[in-house]
User: What shape does this take?
Amino acid sequence: MNVRQLRISRRSVTIAAALVGVVSLAIGANAALNKRSPDTARAVAAEQSGEVPNQASRIALVIGNGHYPDANAPLAQPINDARALTAQLRRTGFDVDVVEDASRDDLQRAIGRLKSRIRPDTVVLLFFGGYGVQVGRESYMIPVDAAIWKEADVRRQGVSIESVLDAMKEQGARAKLVVIDASRRNPYERRFRAYSHGLAPINAPDNALILTSATPGKVADDSTGANSVLVSELLTNLNAQAAGVETAFNKTRIAISRASDGEQVPSVSSSLLEDVSFGGADKTGS
Assistant: This one.
């Protein structure tokens, strides 16, 4: 073999070795990808599909509506209340979805998200601050983009509180907590044939606890504080009452009633079968 042939042979060997190295790297990389843990693969799939892999045992939907075009002035308290209550709930282990100045589409989407996350062991809380209107025997949360000229529009434009409670029940929520701070004189009632005073009674389904800012049919005036009287007192009692949300709701009702000399008496409706705690483990009732 001459010198020229020897150089060609050595060059061929070098190229072949390089190709073998590239192929080995590719095989190794593919093997590493295939060795991803099943959890990692599921996490990637969940991220791509938008699913949440872990469901919280305590979830809340908090809605604060303040800017209604038909009102004489914006409501400052509902948004402040939503933010303050959200902070408190998150400190006590709730996974909170908070919505401010919600349109009807916003409300429907938020309720859809809530329903999709409810499991049989879930404690669910709904808070709504803003304008509420009763039509017939039902109470409706009013979105900020509602176009209401007659009572029938309330049913079309609003969202029934009872319908949300029914959805919680249908999804199998373990306990259902509702706080409605919406017993205001609504800006639409002058368009109705008859005045719409406050909210209708809200029936509690099984294992539910409902707190509203005034007794059915009554209107509560807003205070001058940054937060509403209901939410201010409720936060105080939730902070002080680690065991027993029903006790906190009842103490809120009593404190507001006494402070207002009976002018504002919140309503509490309960069918709870267990003692839901905001600071510790829940206790099943006997």
Residues 57 and 71 are 38 Å apart (CA to CA). The mean pLDDT is 81. The chain is about 40% helix and 15% strand.
